[in-house]
Amino acid sequence: MTIKLFNRQFQFSLLGLSLYVLLMALLCSLGFWQLDRSEQKKQLLMQQQLALDAGSVDLNRQSITDVDSVRYQKATLTGRYDNAHQFLLDNQIIDGKNGYFVLTPFFPDGPGRAVLINRGWLALGNNRNQLPNVEIQTKQAQVVGRINHFPSVGIKLKGAEIPTDNWPSVVQVIDSKVLSQKLGYELASFQIELEPAAEQGYKREWKINTPIPPEKHLAYAVQWFGLALTLTALFIWISIKKSSEHTA
User: Fold this and answer.
1) 91 shares its domain with 123
2) Is 60 inside a domain boundary?
3) Is pLDDT of 16 > 90?
4) Are residues 223 and 124 both part of a single domain?
5) Which one, out of 13, 97, 197, 246, has a CA that is 20 to 30 A from the CA of 109?
C-alpha cells in the first residue's frame, strides 16, 4: 500500500498498518487509564483531608454501619483494653524493616462492639519465635484516633487470616469475623489508628497518602503517550525508508 503526502511517498503493508493501529490503541488506552487513576487518587486524597477536617465521631454514642462514610475521621471512645488478648499483624515493613502492627481489642463503655485499636508498629526482634511484650499498664482509657480499614495485602495466601493459638496472637491478614470467633466476642469491622501523641503505643505515622500518588500515575501516562509518539515516528521513518529504497 502506497500513500503520497506532502510530496513524499509512504509505503507499508496492510499487516504493518494493522499492527501499528493495534499498538497505538493499546498504548493510548494505557495512557488514558493512568490519567484516570491519577484523578481517582486526587479525589481519594481530597476525601482523606475532608474527613480529617470534619468533626470527631463519639463511638460511645454512635455506632458505625458504613465505614467508608466516616473513614479517616477522628474518633473518640472511653472504655477498657483487653490486655490479655492482643494481635500482632505480621509482615509490616516500615523504613525497610520488618515488624508488627499491634492491635488491641477495646471495649467501649456501653453496648457497642469491641474495636481493634492499632497501637502502632513494632520492629521484629532477632528471634521470630520470641514475641514482643505488648502489655498495657492501664486497662481503663480514653482513646483518640483515626477510623480506617484494616491494613491490606497485595496477595492473600490461603489461611493467612487464621491467627496463632498463643497470646499475643500473630496473624497475617485481619479478618474481624475470624478474630471474633477466637476472642469469643464480636469485633467491629474497622480499626482505630491510635493518635501519635497518645501513650501506650508504638511507632505511629498515620499519613494522608495512597500507595501510588497521583503524580506517579501522571508520569506513567506520559511514558505511555511517549511510547505511542515514538511508535508513530518509527512507523513513519520505516515507511519513508521503504519508499526511498523502492524508488531507488
Assistant:
1) yes
2) no
3) no
4) no
5) 197
What is the percent of the chain with per-residue pLDDT over 70, rounded to a whole number?
Answer: 86
The pTM for the full model equals 0.67
- Residue 201, domain member (yes or no): no
Q: Does residue 109 lie in a domain region?
A: yes
**Any idea what DSSP says for residue 133?**
-
Considering the domain architecture, whether residues 146 and 223 belong to the same structural domain is answered as no
Interval 24-81: pLDDT, tens: 999 999 999 999 988 888 887 777 777 666 677 888 888 888 888 888 888 899 999 9
Distance of alpha carbon 119 from alpha carbon 99, whole angstroms: 13
DSSP per-residue letters across 168-209: SEEESS--HHHHHHHHTS-EEEEEEEE-TT-SS--B----S-
Closest to 192 in 3D by CA, of 109, 74, 38, 112: 74
**SS3 label, residue 145:** strand
229 and 167 within one domain: no
Tens digit of each residue's pLDDT (9 = 90 or more) over 129-150: 888 888 887 777 889 999 988 8
Q: Considering the domain boundaries, does residue 39 fall inside one? A: yes
Q: How many domains, in total, are found in the chain?
A: 2
Output the CA torsion 55→174→154→68 (10° steps). Answer: -30
Find the domain containing 145 and state its range.
73-128+137-194
Question: Is the peptide bond preceding residue 211 cis, with omega within 30 degrees of 0?
Answer: no
pLDDT given at position 245: 47
- 95-126 tens-digit pLDDT: 888 899 999 999 988 877 899 999 999 988 77
Give the C-alpha separation, 90 to 129, whole Å: 13
List the one residue out of 90, 80, 81 whose CA is nearest residue 174. Answer: 90
Neighbouring C-beta atoms of residue 66, cutoff 10 Å = 7
